[in-house]
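Severity: low
Component: inverse-folding endpoint
Summary: output formatting inconsistent between runs
Steps to reproduce: submit the following structure tokens with default settings.
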């Protein structure tokens, strides 16, 4: 099994890499992508680290072509709500452009690549009162540029599933 983790240099990505390596067999390959391939002491040396700016369509195609993943775990992007207010367009553009480029690269590869795309509970907006449950049935009510970008990613993933049949798993985790 060949796995590609975008945003592998982040907190969640590096821990996911460790988990995949611990669960995988001897023939499993874990590839990681971040903006640069600069060494990270906390990242397992068994992860093949590549630098790629997924906002560039060619970089996304080259990444998918080189890694030929069976699975993609897409974690890369701007992830700070507060910072998204300082530069809303950068957050929206970065998260959406990288998402579209990665989806297009997977479609172009022709491989049956399964994708996990990590959204955010922020897509639901504020809960209101503490007794109000938040589950998948709750309408999306994003309330920051960050959460708007994550909700838009979520809807794009749905469209690529509907149009191309891509096996995409969408999650909206709460703080971890």
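Observed output (run 2 of 3):
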């Amino acid at each position: 099994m060949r796995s590609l983790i975008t945003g592998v240099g982040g907190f969640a990505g590096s821990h996911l890499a460790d988990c995949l390596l611990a669960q995988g067999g001897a023939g499993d390959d874990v590839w990681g992508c971040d903006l640069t391939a600069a060494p990270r002491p906390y990242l397992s040396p068994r992860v093949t680290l590549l630098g790629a700016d997924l906002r560039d369509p060619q970089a996304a195609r080259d990444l998918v072509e080189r890694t030929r993943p069976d699975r993609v775990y897409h974690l890369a992007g701007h992830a700070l709500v507060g910072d998204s207010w300082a530069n809303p367009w950068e957050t929206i553009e970065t998260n959406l452009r990288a998402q579209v480029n990665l989806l297009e690269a997977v479609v172009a590869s022709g491989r049956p690549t399964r994708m996990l795309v990590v959204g955010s509970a922020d897509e639901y907006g504020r809960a209101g009162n503490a007794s109000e449950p938040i589950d998948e049935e709750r309408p999306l009510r994003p309330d920051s540029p960050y959460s708007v970008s994550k909700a838009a990613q979520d809807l794009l993933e749905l469209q690529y599933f509907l149009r191309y049949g891509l096996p995409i798993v969408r999650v909206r985790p709460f703080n971890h």
